[in-house]
Structures are given as structure tokens and as C-alpha cells.
Amino acid sequence: MSKSLLVLGPAETAACCSPLSSQPLSAQQAGQVAPLLKALADPVRLRLMSLVASHAGGEACVCDLNDAFDLSQPTISHHLKVLHDCGLLDREKRGVWVYYRARTEALASLGALIGSASP
Fold this sequence. Notes:
Helix content: 40-55%
Strand order of the largest sheet: 1-3-2
Order of helices and strands: HHHEHHEEH
Strand content: 5-15%
Shape: elongated
Largest sheet: 3 strands, antiparallel
Number of strands: 3
CATH class of the domain at 29-106: Mainly Alpha
Structural class: alpha+beta
Radius of gyration: 16 Å
């Protein structure tokens, strides 16, 4: 019987971590969660995440997001790809358009990881 190795992505790793205020992250956990935080540290990606998550129906196409930025469509698509690659967005191709949906569980995991600071 073969044993399979479960590999967690950054979003799943964040879900497995205790809040920062309760115990420190291991070096491995920090290395796996850092790409999520790095992706969100860019102001354009943070706004894109917010726009997609709050968009009617919970999903948005690049064509829905272009007017919110003074950027080209390929640049916006690049930022959306970064958010998808780190596990914060899901995407689905429909014809020539790609629709993005926020992975709310990944955002909730990051929120729980950061937690509230104890006074």
C-alpha cells in the first residue's frame, strides 16, 4: 500500500495554523503563509481582491474590473493570476472570458491566523 504525501498550499497552511497571538509560527508555516500576505501587500491586488469578493454574485471578470484602475487589461490579468496562483482566487474560463471568485475560506483562514491582539 503506497502512502501519499499531502501537500498544503499557502491557503491551506494558513487554515492549519494557530492564531499568531496564541503561539509562534514555525519557519515552515511562515514560509508557506508569506506568499499570501505578499500577494495582498500590493495595493492593486488588495483592491482587486476586495472588488472580486464584493462583486455582485461573488465573481467578476477582468472586463468588470478594468474601469476601477488606470492600468491595462493585461496588467490587471497579471495581478489576478498572482492572486489565483497563491490560492486566494478561483477562476473559471467561459468562452473568451475568465471569471474570478474569491476563496473566502482562504481569507477567513488568514483572518483567523492574524487573530485579534490580546491587550
